[in-house]
Amino acid sequence: MELAITKNKSRLEELEGVINRNLQSFYEVGRALMEIRDNELYKLKNGGGYGTFEAYCQDTWNFSRSHAYRFIDSVKVIENLSPTGDKPVTRISLKNTSHLPVLNRNSNAKEVWQKAVDNRP
Questions:
Q1: Spatial distance between the Cα atoms of 90 and 40, rounded to a whole number of angstroms
Q2: CB of 92 within 8 A of CB of 116?
Q3: Cβ–Cβ < 8 Å for 77, 93
Q4: pLDDT of the chain along its 121 residues, tens only?
């Protein structure tokens, strides 16, 4: 019995490591996409064949326009809510990205976010 508990605890730690690494990746993907878009770096790919960021995302990453912009919007929200460089927001952000555009446009985003964090189960 004790062996099974130890084995399960070890597996839990492994899985939590996977989640933690991928939460950080979510933010990093958004930052990379933002820079590619903002600096029009996508035009350097495919012999200059991509006229739009959206076409680049679709062909290179199989991301729809809205999916790519969800990554980018999440970066804006995370940076707005965590200006010190600490990124605790990502723990919740991955569960449902539909709220990100609203938080991104909301001038009271920090207060809204804090209420959400305080009231989460």
A1: 27
A2: yes
A3: yes
A4: 567 677 788 888 888 788 777 766 778 888 999 999 999 999 998 888 899 999 999 999 999 999 999 889 888 877 777 655 455 554 444 445 555 555 555 556 556 656 655 666 5
Contacts of 100 (CB under 8 A, 6+ apart): 70, 73, 74, 77, 93
Residue whose tokens read 């919007």: 73
* Token output for 88: 């605790």
Angle (CA) 115 67 73, round 5°: 40
Annotate the chain with DSSP letters as a single string: -HHHHHHHHHHHHHHHHHHHHHHHHHHHHHHHHHHHHHTTGGGGSGGGT--SHHHHHHHHH---HHHHHHHHHHHHHHHHH-TTS--TTHHHHTT-GGGHHHHHH-TTHHHHHHHHHHH--
**Could you tell me the two tokens for 40?**
């029009």
